[in-house]
Amino acid sequence: MEDLQHKQKYSRRDFISYLVSLLAIPVILWWLITGRRERTLSSGAKSISLGGDLPMGVSFHEGFVLIRDRDSIRAYESKCTHLGCAIRKVEGNELVCQCHGSRFDLMGNAVKGPAINPLKEFLVYQDAASGEITIQIK
Q1: For 85-113, what is each residue's pLDDT tens digit?
Q2: Are residues 49 and 30 in the same domain?
Q3: How far is the CA of 17 from the CAs of 7, 22, 40, 61, 91, in angstroms?
Q4: Exposed, middle or buried: residue 78 (CB in 10 Å: 0-12, 13-18, 19+)?
C-alpha cells in the first residue's frame, strides 16, 4: 500500500488546478481578441447617396441602420453593443441581433439583453435638392 501512494505523483487538487488552468487559456484568448476589437466606425464624415428612394421604416445600408419616419431620418451603427455582431433583422418595432438575441427599439435603446447599452446614433443630414443623405461620424 505504501508503494501505491508513492507512485501517485499528482493529487486530485493538482489535477483540478491543472484542468482549470488549461480551460482558462481559450477564455483569455477570446477576451483578448474580442476586447481589442474596434466597435465603432472610423472617424470623419461619410456620405451615403440614396437619392429620394429611402423607404419609410427601417433599412440597412453600409453598416448603418436607417430609420425613416414622416419627419426625420435617424442613423445608428448596425453593430450590437454586446459583442459587435451585425444587426440585420427587424421584428415588429425591434431591431434584432441574431448572435445572442439582443433587441433594440427604433430609438436605438436596448430593450432585451444581453446588450444593455443603446446603439450608437449619428447625425443625419439630407440635401433637399439631391436627396443625398450624409451621416456625420465623430
Answers
A1: 888 989 999 999 988 889 999 999 999 88
A2: no
A3: 20, 9, 38, 49, 46
A4: buried
Domain residue limits at 98: 44-137
Listed in order, strand segments (DSSP E) in 14-130 are 44-48, 57-61, 64-68, 73-77, 87-91, 94-97, 103-105, 110-112, 121-126
Report the predicted TM-score, pTM, of the whole model to 2 decimal places: 0.62
Q: Are residues 84 and 117 in the same domain?
A: yes
Clarify whether residues 77 and 103 are in a common domain.
yes
Give SS3 for 120: coil
User: Which ranges of the chain would DSSP assign to H, the alpha helix?
Assistant: 2-7, 12-35
